[in-house]
Specification:
The chain is mostly helical. It has one domain.
């Protein structure tokens, strides 16, 4: 399970998090090597940036789904579940009676040793 998560994450890192600067640099090099004019180079850069953003969004969606699946398989409580339970507990505590107050720790009494009678 963890291995699948790791593989998905590793594959997506390379494509999804390529910076705009890196994409522009690669597109400019490609345009120069293939003798593209400025307008064609601009279209290429815009196209690659748009594709990168689409890949990033798709990977984020897939990663979120994979996280949900993994959490469900591990039988973990989600934040939403926790908040719902917390609200239920508060409602039950206030329904028909006052909430339970924290117990105060009572210090033990000092041990008194009897005094010897004066003889």
């Amino acid at each position: 399970m963890f291995e699948n998560l790791k593989q998905s994450f590793d594959k997506g890192i390379e494509f999804a998090f390529a910076t705009t600067e890196k994409i522009e640099k690669a597109a400019k090099e490609f345009a120069k090597e293939n003798n593209l004019n400025k307008e064609e180079a601009k279209k290429l850069i815009d196209s690659w940036i748009k594709k990168s953003e689409e890949i990033k969004k798709a990977l984020e969606k897939q990663f979120a789904e994979l996280q949900k699946t993994t959490i469900a398989k591990m039988n973990l409580v989600t934040k939403e579940d926790y908040k719902a339970l917390e609200a239920r507990i508060k409602k039950l505590e206030t329904k028909g009676r006052q909430p339970v107050k924290e117990m105060v720790k009572v210090k033990p009494a000092k041990k008194v040793t009897p005094k010897k009678p004066i003889s």
